[in-house]
Design goal:
Layout: H1 10-30, H2 32-35, H3 42-45, H4 51-69, H5 76-104, H6 111-118, H7 136-153, H8 158-175, H9 180-201, H10 211-224, H11 229-242, H12 267-277, H13 285-305, H14 312-326, H15 330-348, H16 350-365, H17 374-410
Helix pairs in contact: 1-4, 1-15, 1-16, 4-9, 4-12, 5-7, 5-16, 5-17, 7-9, 8-9, 9-12, 10-12, 10-14, 10-15, 13-14, 16-17
């Protein structure tokens, strides 16, 4: 087993694990014809979490980790080690996932598309492989890694860059409407920089981690991913003031507009959850969290008032979130700590989980295992879950340390 850095944060790793699981469950339900063509339990459809909010969370976490582990005194000699570390961490497993995707694909892709996906140039120059579309976010991630170099080298203030990236997105929307990807880069980098701000501006730690609070935050994310009052509020305010909401029509390639202005309605939740999981202490910490809880409940009440019948499961998520928040039982804290512990294990394989689960789901579709009852579905679901975890474990725990050792021993 590889030795963890003293900077390693098991709580944050668990948050990464939960986010990855939400993406897997989202795709399993969204692509309902893949796991067992022709059948999916109705109850399962109601559980669908928001995969997109999880991706936004990944960006904040990534910015935090880079901001925490990159030296403040960043010079030219730091650039190559920084790029090498990012390459070794991302590319070997990514390469395997692309090979696997092409192996299970029914489509025949051109060499240009294949080469573009192997080189992180999908989205920018070529389409994303449909059988592994979560990799769209890795293109953005690589762009953000590169943008961080001048930011670190010239020691630009992370808060200023975060605001500047947001304004850049708005400016491009107004001035260069034919380049939606530049707008998406700006908005996405603003999210990413919020993580750097957390790492470098919030330095005071809480005396003791409240694990039930962390579980409360996880269920809050599950709730607001589908019922966020701030989204409606942001939409109405910008519509009234600016007569539009800085978004592109559906005719524009979704991957070029993947991170939109309205995504900032989730920013308070993503940032707050990362602050909680990293144990940051700051003024009005719990007051802000209670406010976000209140907005979540307000969203549900509004949807109930509109007669929306699909919000019952999210009401359950909200109630569980509240119960973990206000509980005073020691056993709840012990249970929460155990959940976070197991979540950190999932977090350790979350990258592989993220980029291998969908091509594996497409492979299951090709097995022609037709069924029409819950028992058969659960067998298939269990098989899929075990294989996904097992492959991710092999890639992250066995393959990745070996490939890292190879690269770093070669340089000695």
């Amino acid at each position: 087993m590889t030795r963890r850095s003293h900077l390693f944060d098991y709580n944050l790793e668990s948050l990464r694990g939960f986010a990855a699981l939400f993406v897997v469950v989202h795709h399993m339900i969204y692509y309902e014809d893949k796991l067992m063509p022709g059948y999916i339990p109705v109850q399962l459809k109601l559980l669908e979490p928001s995969g997109h909010v999880s991706v936004l969370m990944f960006f904040v976490i990534s910015g935090y980790v880079i901001g925490l582990t990159t030296p403040i005194e960043f010079t030219k000699k730091n650039i190559y080690p920084y790029l090498k570390k990012r390459f070794v961490r991302l590319y070997p497993i990514y390469f395997i996932s692309i090979v696997f995707t092409l192996a299970v694909s029914k489509e025949t892709y051109s060499w240009e598309v294949i080469l573009g996906n192997f080189t992180f140039l999908k989205v920018l120059l070529v389409p994303v492989l449909l059988e592994n579309n979560p990799i769209w976010s890795l293109h953005y991630e690589v762009v953000f890694y590169l943008l961080f170099i001048p930011m670190a080298y010239f020691r630009w203030n992370a808060k200023v860059v975060m605001l500047g990236a947001f304004l850049w997105g708005v400016l491009i929307y107004y001035c260069l409407t034919d380049y939606p990807l530049l707008t998406s880069y700006g908005f996405g980098f603003s999210f990413w920089c919020s993580g750097v701000v957390i790492a470098r501006s919030f330095t005071v730690k809480v005396k003791q981690i409240n694990y039930s609070l962390l579980i409360s935050a996880v269920f809050l994310l599950l709730c607001v991913g589908n019922t966020n009052f701030l989204t409606k509020l942001l939409y109405n305010v910008t519509k009234q003031v600016f007569h539009h909401y800085f978004d592109y029509p559906d005719s524009v390639d979704w991957y070029h507009r993947a991170i939109s202005f309205l995504d900032f309605s989730y920013a308070p939740y993503c940032i707050m959850v990362v602050l909680l999981f990293t144990g940051k202490e700051f003024k009005y910490r719990m007051s802000i969290y209670y406010l976000l809880q209140g907005l979540s409940i307000l969203s549900l009440l509004f949807l109930f008032w509109q007669g929306n019948q699909d919000v019952y499961i999210f009401t359950i998520y909200a109630l569980i979130s509240l119960l973990f928040l206000v509980n005073s039982f020691s056993w709840v804290e012990v249970l929460s700590q155990k959940i976070i512990h197991y979540g950190s294990w999932i977090g350790g394989i979350s990258y592989s989980l993220y980029i291998i689960h969908l091509p594996l789901l497409h492979l299951f579709e090709r097995l022609n295992w037709i069924g029409d009852n819950t028992e058969q579905f659960m067998i298939r679901l269990g098989t899929y879950g075990v294989l996904t975890i097992l492959i991710s474990f092999i890639l992250e725990i066995k393959f990745q340390p070996w490939i890292s050792s190879f690269f770093y021993n070669q340089s000695k």
